[in-house]
Amino acid sequence: MNKTNIMVCVTQQKTCERLILNGYKLAEATKGKLYVIHVVNEKDKFLNNVDDGEALEYLFRVSKKAGADLTVLRSKDVIQAIINFAKDNNITHMILGTTPKENNSKESNFALKLQESLPNVEFIII
Fold first, then answer.
1. CA torsion 80→82→85→86, rounded to 10°?
2. Second label for 32, Cα 20 to 30 Å away, from 26, 55, 69, 95?
3. The predicted structure's pLDDT at residue 105
4. If you compute the radius of gyration of the chain from its CA atoms, what whole number of angstroms results?
């Protein structure tokens, strides 16, 4: 059986803990490796306020507890950065969160672009 490499895409929100925990459960069940990644657009302010830093620190702790490192990248092209990370780490499964209904078309477009570029990756939307 091929090695399972699970990638969890998070934002700097504490609610992303549920994504990491789902990734952890899958990694445990498959004896796979867990990666947690957060990509920041170079145009966006990073850690714009105290809550952002606190949330990111929290996600670092949750990731570590789940046996994963949290990788934070800055890129002009967030989608391409995720695709490159997935390819570089032979990702087999990618866990993404859903967004509020009003952002649904943006989210669908985001997930669709990832799926088109990574046809061999199993996507899990939570």
1. -110
2. 55
3. 60
4. 14
Contacts of 107 (CB under 8 A, 6+ apart): 98, 99
Domain count, the chain: 1
Residue 33 near residue 6, CB atoms below 8 Å? yes
**In this structure, what CATH number is given to the domain that contains residue 12?**
3.40.50.620
Domain ranges, residue 117: 5-125
pLDDT along the chain (126 residues), means of 10: 89 87 96 94 69 82 94 93 97 88 62 95 95
Is residue 10 within 8 A of residue 57, CB to CB? The reply is no
For residue 70, list its beta bridge partners: 36
72 with 55: CB under 8 angstroms?
Answer: no
Q: What is the pLDDT of residue 107?
A: 57
H-run or E-run covering 18:
helix 17-30
What does the pLDDT read at residue 30? 96
Q: How far is CA 20 from CA 37, 63, 104, 113, 119, in A?
A: 10, 7, 21, 22, 22
